[in-house]
């Protein structure tokens, strides 16, 4: 049975386990440092990168403000080009639509392009329950599927696996899914890639149904766009007789001119390339080439509710480049599985709680899975202020109250806080509201600095067990300024 993210523990518990895995941390450190260094070099080549970034954010914001208009225009143009559009309010409806479409063809096998949205809906497991086998064709997704694993990165789903582990997975599991691994398979990348190519080629030629996501949908013409680096997407999008694309409604862009912006932003931010090796575009169906039947499933699944949040909606700008994961110190140490979602890292910490709602300890914990260092915002190609959204979601968790997710109204439980914590926060709030009291407290702290403990007692012990308490300076900034500059700052 295909594994899913359902029932995974809250982030602190999952991260406590994953950070003890030395091999995982080594794999992540090597991979993320390599990718982000290459990305920085690719971005530095463009003098107008910041203007491109601002343009990407502006187009996304404008589209989201008028999303109803652009979605209807998209539907009209997809239909005019010979495609069929289906609307799915949630994951269950999307899976039901896709399952029924595959059943209608009489087929029991499908090939898939890498698709995060079908990970979000749990499509593979739904198809398996219906007796339909889905074959992942992206190399990293194939590794994950053969290893009965879950993706842990947006761009490189098998980033947590080393070459020897991949070799062993191919040797042990390829035969269960089709053509076995070659005899004497080594862990050389070229040999592993060749083994995957041979294994997948027969599936490309045999399967008559393909399933994809899309990076972008152009409302102006009803065109869908998939960008990838291996060519597996091109095979899945052109060889099958029936193509089913499941796409989140936020992937819409108004025009081809707008698309041009993202085709410059995405490859440099994700794979550190000037352009994607394979950019596939299709508009409906034709008699001469490609699938004879095309179905587009437009997925909401919490996106409309996210759109209603004026602060949180910027998460819907995301173009799934993974740049934020590669610079995040928390992701580097905890790994992607700790986030309990197909969307790991900083973007997952703000996207998952909004799509699913703050409905369980897992979602409530994700906004706190960050040091708020801001590195994610600095590299985001569409300028999502992830730290701002994290703080906003933390406030929602702490305050509690009613929210609506997927049309269902629920109440978030206010976060439980120790009585001493509440008292400390009230005292700190009162002190910061009274400058004279703050100055006296600072001077007292400076005079008693040598008597301060290195660890906090009571409820603060858990915090200071993993951190050094900051040293208090001999004098406050205000006192230093008054002494050296002769006045208040």
TrEMBL record:
Domain LUD positions: 73-299
GO molecular function per UniProt: 4 iron, 4 sulfur cluster binding; metal ion binding
Entry keyword Nucleus: no
Pfam families attached to this UniProt entry: Fer4_8, LUD_dom, LutB_C
Occurrences of domain 4Fe-4S ferredoxin-type (ranges): 315-384
UniProt-annotated stretches for the region Disordered: 446-470
Source organism, top-level taxon: Bacteria
Classification via InterPro entries: 4Fe4S_Fe-S-bd, 4Fe4S_Fe_S_CS, FTHF_cligase-like_sf, Helical_ferredxn, LUD_dom, LutB/LldF, LutB_C, NagB/RpiA_transferase-like
Sequence ranges assigned to domain Lactate utilization protein B C-terminal in this UniProt record: 393-483
Bias (Basic residues) ranges: 446-455
PROSITE patterns linked to this entry: 4FE4S_FER_1
Keyword line: 4Fe-4S, Electron transport, Iron, Iron-sulfur, Metal-binding, Repeat, Transport
Name of protein: Lactate utilization protein
């Amino acid at each position: 049975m295909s594994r899913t993210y359902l029932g995974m523990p809250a982030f602190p518990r999952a991260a406590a386990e994953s950070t003890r895995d030395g091999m995982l941390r080594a794999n992540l450190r090597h991979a993320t440092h390599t990718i982000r260094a290459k990305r920085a070099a690719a971005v530095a080549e463009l003098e107008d990168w910041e203007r491109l970034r601002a343009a990407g954010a502006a187009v996304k914001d404008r589209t989201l403000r008028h999303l109803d208009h652009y979605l209807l225009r998209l539907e009209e143009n997809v239909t005019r080009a010979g495609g069929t559009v289906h609307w799915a309010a949630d994951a269950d409806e999307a899976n039901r639509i896709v399952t029924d479409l595959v059943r209608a063809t009489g087929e029991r096998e499908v090939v898939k392009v890498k698709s995060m949205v079908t990970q979000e809906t749990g499509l593979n497991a739904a198809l398996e329950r219906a007796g339909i086998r889905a074959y992942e064709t992206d190399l990293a997704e194939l590794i994950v599927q053969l290893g009965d694993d879950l993706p842990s990165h947006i761009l490189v789903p098998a980033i947590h696996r080393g070459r020897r582990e991949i070799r062993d997975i191919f040797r042990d599991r390829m035969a269960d899914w089709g053509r076995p691994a070659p005899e004497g398979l080594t862990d050389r990348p070229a040999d592993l890639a060749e083994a995957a190519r041979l294994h997948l080629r027969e599936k490309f030629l045999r399967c008559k149904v393909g399933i994809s996501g899309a990076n972008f949908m152009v409302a102006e013409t009803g065109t869908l766009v998939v960008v990838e680096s291996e060519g597996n997407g091109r095979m899945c999008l052109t060889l099958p007789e029936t193509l089913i694309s499941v796409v989140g409604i936020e992937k819409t862009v108004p025009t081809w001119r707008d698309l041009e912006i993202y085709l410059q932003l995405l490859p440099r931010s994700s794979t550190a390339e000037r352009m994607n090796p394979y950019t596939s575009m299709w508009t409906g169906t034709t008699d001469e080439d490609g699938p004879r039947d095309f179905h587009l499933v437009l997925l909401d699944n919490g996106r409309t509710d996210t759109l209603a949040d004026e602060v949180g909606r910027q998460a819907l700008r995301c173009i799934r480049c993974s740049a934020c994961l590669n610079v995040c110190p928390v992701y580097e140490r905890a790994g992607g599985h700790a986030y309990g979602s197909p969307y790991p890292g900083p973007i997952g910490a703000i996207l998952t709680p909004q799509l699913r709602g703050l409905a369980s300890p897992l979602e409530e914990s994700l906004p706190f899975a960050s040091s708020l260092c801001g590195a994610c915002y600095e590299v985001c190609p569409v300028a999502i202020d992830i730290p701002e959204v994290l703080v906003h979601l933390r406030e929602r968790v702490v305050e509690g109250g009613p929210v609506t997710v997927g049309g269902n109204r629920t109440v978030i439980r206010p976060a439980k806080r120790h009585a001493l914590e509440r008292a400390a926060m009230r005292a700190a709030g009162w002190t910061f509201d009274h400058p004279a009291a703050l100055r006296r407290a600072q001077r007292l702290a400076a005079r008693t600095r040598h008597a301060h403990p290195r660890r906090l007692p009571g409820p603060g012990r858990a915090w200071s067990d993993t951190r050094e308490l900051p040293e208090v300076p001999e004098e406050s900034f205000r006192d230093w300024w008054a002494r050296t500059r002769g006045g208040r700052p």
